[in-house]
Structure formats: structure tokens, C-alpha cells
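Priority: medium. Attachment 1 of 2:
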């Protein structure tokens, strides 16, 4: 019988998103020397720029392409980014993503805020080269924080949150935007989970209101008798596409 643990080949300690990105890109470049690393940044329309200092120090040659939904706000932010070499905006179900074109797909806080999330993930996987990596980070809908976050009206959330999080589009929270949902997605697509990390970064984005949000989360966790945990607000998966195109979990 196949279990969720069967598709996880490595569990690494939690690190922040920037370090994880640089670490995985550097490792990938080391394993494939003398080759430019092509990176797709999915969700380029908001958030801070990628920390490329470690890649520059390691002389990692790369090409970074941004992709996101086409709205005036997201377009302006994408155009202003200095970390992108090229970008495409549009419907993520149809925006250009050449098959087997990218070594790494990085999708920070995208899966939880889009509709048709599994279809979009399928497009990311198709755009990955065999052996490539997909790094997805999202707010977990099946946590106490996810429950509280869904109850807060978008206008009030923008007033309460600080920094780049205030500009984030409201979350959609489809089933795949959860710890178990993403694990089962990988099982059904024959993908290998090579890292899982949880954190409370999105709770901390509420700034001086973070304590209140955490308190509400603990109350929800208690009322749900642990069904909605309060130990994390978001999760990051590092997912590897098998080298063998026939490798698939049935």
C-alpha cells in the first residue's frame, strides 16, 4: 500500500523562503555544472524580490522568468522587479509556459490565491525539465490560521497586515492549498516530495495584530479539538519531477 511517506525522500529542517530558494538553486547548479539554470517565478506580481546574493557569490548563471495573473497592480509590480530577466502575464491556465523549459519553478503564495489551482500546477509540472524542482509555498487552508484568515474580509485584512502581505490578493483556498492536499496531489502525479517546511510567517504579517490572530487561531484549534492545528500558518514543499517520464505512482 502506498503511503504519503513513500513519496518523501528527504526531510530537511525549516529554513526561511529566501534561503531555501538560494540553497536549492545552488545545489541544482552544482549537480549540473556549466549549464544555465532556467527559473520560473510563478506569482511575480507581488512580494519582495528574490535574494540572489548567494547565487551571485557562487557564479550561478541563471535566467528568471516571471509569470502571474494580468491585473494593473500585478503588472506594475512585475515590470518594476529587478530580479526578472523576462516575464509573461495573463490567465495562468493559458499564459505561455513551454514544456520542459525550466529547471526550477518557484511559486510563493500562489497556490492558495488562485482558482483552478491543480490545473495551474499541472502546467508548472509540464514546464519542468525531468529532474527539475518545484518549490511551492502557501497558506494552509486546513489550519486554525487558514480558518481565521478566510473569515477576515479582504478590506480589513489590508488594514491589519503590514509590508508586502498587505498587497497580496485574497486567498481562494482550494483543497490542494493544504498540507494533505498537496501531498495527495504529488501522489496522484507521481511526483517526489524532497522537503517539507512549516512556519508562521503569514501570522507574523499581521504585525501588532499578530497576537490577536494567534489567539483566535488557538481558540479555533481548541474548538475544533485539534482538527485545525495552530502550530503553523503556511507550508512549503520542495517537489521533484522524476527523471524517468514513465515513473509514476499508480
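Attachment 2 of 2:
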Amino acid at each position: 500500500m502506498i503511503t504519503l511517506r513513500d513519496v518523501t525522500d528527504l526531510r530537511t529542517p525549516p529554513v526561511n523562503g529566501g534561503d531555501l530558494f538560494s540553497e536549492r538553486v545552488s545545489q541544482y547548479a552544482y549537480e549540473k555544472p556549466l549549464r544555465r539554470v532556467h527559473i520560473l517565478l510563478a506569482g511575480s506580481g507581488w512580494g519582495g524580490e528574490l535574494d540572489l546574493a548567494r547565487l551571485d557569490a557562487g557564479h550561478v548563471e541563471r535566467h528568471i522568468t516571471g509569470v502571474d495573473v494580468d491585473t494593473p497592480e500585478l503588472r506594475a509590480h512585475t515590470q518594476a522587479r529587478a530580479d526578472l530577466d523576462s516575464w509573461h502575464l495573463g490567465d495562468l491556465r493559458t499564459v505561455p509556459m513551454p514544456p520542459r523549459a525550466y529547471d526550477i519553478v518557484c511559486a510563493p503564495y500562489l497556490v492558495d490565491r488562485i482558482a483552478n489551482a491543480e490545473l495551474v500546477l499541472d502546467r508548472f509540472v509540464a514546464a519542468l525539465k525531468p529532474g527539475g524542482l518545484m518549490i511551492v509555498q502557501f497558506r494552509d487552508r486546513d489550519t486554525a490560521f487558514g480558518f481565521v484568515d478566510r473569515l477576515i474580509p479582504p478590506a480589513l485584512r489590508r488594514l491589519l497586515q503590514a509590508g508586502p502581505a498587505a498587497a497580496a490578493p485574497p486567498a481562494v483556498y482550494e483543497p490542494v492549498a493544504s498540507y494533505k492536499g498537496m501531498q495527495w496531489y504529488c501522489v496522484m502525479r507521481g511526483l517526489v516530495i524532497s522537503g517539507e517546511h512549516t512556519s508562521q510567517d503569514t501570522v507574523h504579517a499581521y504585525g501588532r495584530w499578530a497576537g490577536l490572530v494567534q489567539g483566535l487561531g488557538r481558540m479555533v484549534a481548541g474548538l475544533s479539538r485539534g482538527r485545525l492545528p495552530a502550530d503553523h500558518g503556511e507550508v512549503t514543499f520542495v517537489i521533484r519531477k522524476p527523471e524517468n517520464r514513465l515513473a509514476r505512482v499508480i
